[in-house]
Amino acid sequence: MGIATLSVASLVIVGSGYSQAVRDPVVRNATFLMPTLPKETGTVRLLLLADLHVQAPDMTPARVERIVQKANALRADIVVLAGDFRGTSFRASGAYEEAQAIAPLAKLQAATGVYAVLGNNDRARSDTAIAALSAAGITVLESRAVQLGPIALGGLRTRYGSTIRRLLALQGTRILVSHSPDGFAQLPPGVHLMLAGHTHCGQVVLPFLGALATGSQYGDRYRCGITVENGRTLVVTAGLGTSNVPFRIGAPPDMWLVELKPS
Description:
Helices cover 21% and strands 28% of the residues.
């Protein structure tokens, strides 16, 4: 294969990867029966978004606005944002401050509210990120838990044990939101569902080789989608933006609409 052919093939791969990165997110659906959910409550719809990594060229505030419109059309009862709002890619062609990156999220609509946790890329400027989220009308769950009718929602940042204790002190169907899925391995049976991002589902997943990286200490175990272990359920989203390079292969951006039904 000549140099020219290799160059063309490389351009095609890069172009395809960028095209996948900026496509509209796939809406993935999951339904779980919850014995802890009162029958009179009916179905509770949660929408999971994560890893916006707002930066040019692939994730601009204008693209976030379009994603918000798509999210609102799903009419979720609760929207959860699992961290990493501001981009940190060394390949980015333009950066946005937290206020710019997060401002479009103010238009998110959910009957029971919008809740967020911070990601690893938000920690360096966590006060600024929290202020921007609060200004957008989003409740930040910094290692704490809240009662939302029949749902108890906890948000993990760094204090795993204290977050779990606060969540277990509440009643109903207990849900933990975390940026990384890794805490699922230690999740106690009293927490029924965990929602996470961080892995980007690998972001670049190649035939035969699989994911080049997952960002998880468990490798592929919690890389993507639904995992059920010991009666507990984990949902991991591929997220919306990118890290390091502005393209995706085999791991398109997505959001998860999770429906909880009384059993």
